[in-house]
Structures are given as structure tokens and as C-alpha cells.
Amino acid sequence: MEYLFKTQRLGFRPWRETDLEPLAALNADPAAMEYFPSTLTRDETAAMIARFSAHFEEYGYCFFPVDLLETGECIGFIGISNPRFESYFTPCVEIGWRLSRSVWGKGLATEGALGCLEYAFSSLDIPRIYSFTSIHNHRSQRVMIKAGMEQIGEFDHPSISEGHWLQRHVLYSLERKP
User: Fold this and answer.
1) Is residue 52 within 8 Å of residue 159, measured between CB atoms?
2) Phi/psi of residue 49, each to 5°?
3) For the chain, which domains are there?
4) Rounded-to-integer distance, Cα 4 and Cα 32, Å
5) Which pLDDT tens digit goes with each residue over 100-120?
């Protein structure tokens, strides 16, 4: 398998048709989607993959499908993207992840985030990366902290309706070292 970059246990690559089934299963898992407004259908997942692929074609980066190098299994995505909403910190580049529940608790999100940050800073010359999540998503916030990011604020996510329990988000950031 040809990868754009690797970490010790993970391979990052462009999207392909065979990724639809594992990502559709991930997006339909209520536990994996706990801090999103809803789970996603297979069609919504296909549209998501199309957006990620188009983003890669335009910018040379995206939320990448991630394979376990040991097995070749696609376990979700980790990568960087340009948020599609307006806020006081946009335009910017964000890092994010969503992994299959079967691999939670093994340090893979942190390993992948560190690999993506290194790729973004050294190969893509991106000066600063942001990350955000619901104030309730402590697992994701721990990954941000372990990846060296610092909390710099909070905001109401403009894509989530007023008063929704997921509207309030924390914002983290990391600047490339000179």
C-alpha cells in the first residue's frame, strides 16, 4: 500500500471507494458520534468522502483515511481541513479525527494527531493548526492536550442550533516551531 505518510502504527492515504463501508459503519455508531448532532446515513457518508476527496484535490490535504499498518484495516480518519463555517478564528486549518470504537484507548488518535501535525508543519508549511470539539468531549480534548495543543478559547459552533447541548465548543491551537 502506498501511503502519503505513516506513523509507527498508522498509514495515511487518499480516499478510495472501499472506504465507504467502514466509514459508514463508523458514522452510524452512536458512541462514535456522541458529540455530533446525529449519526450519518450511508449516503451522507458517501457525500462526506466526496467532500474530503475534493478538499484533498484542491489543497493537498484533508481528513485522511487511516489504516492500521499491521492489518491494512481502515479504522476511520485523522487529518487536517479548512472549516466550512465562519468564526473569529477562521479561515484556518483544523485537525480532527474519528476512529472506530474497536481501537479506542490504544493511543492511536494521539499518535495520528502527532503524525498529522508533523506532516502539516514540515511538509505543508502550515504555520498554525486549530482543533475544536464540544465542551463535553473530554476524550477528544485529552488527545489535543497530548498532541501539544493549548486551549485558547471557547465559542458557540455556528452550525449547531442555538441552545443545543453541543453548541458550546472549546478551541485549541498549536503553532509550528521555528
Assistant:
1) no
2) -60, -40
3) 5-131 (3.40.630.30)
4) 26
5) 999 999 999 999 999 999 999
CB 44 within 8 A of CB 35: no
Rounded-to-integer distance, Cα 29 and Cα 47, Å? 17
Vertex 44 angle, CA 49 and 50, to 5°: 25
Query: What global pTM score does this model have?
Result: 0.96
- Cβ-contact 95, 82 below 8 angstroms: no
Residue 122 C-beta-side C-alpha neighbours within 13 Å: 7
Q: Which cell numbers hold the place of 162?
A: 442555538
pLDDT in tens, 48-102: 999 999 999 999 999 999 999 999 999 999 999 999 999 999 999 999 999 999 9
User: Could you give the CA distance from residue 55 to residue 57 in angstroms, rounded to a whole number?
Assistant: 5
Strand partners, 40: none
ω into residue 83 within 30 of 0, thus cis? no
Q: What is the CA radius of gyration of the chain?
A: 15
Q: Residue 103: name the closest of 42, 20, 32 by CA.
A: 32
Cα–Cα distance measured from residue 94 to residue 81, given in angstroms and rounded to the nearest whole number? 5
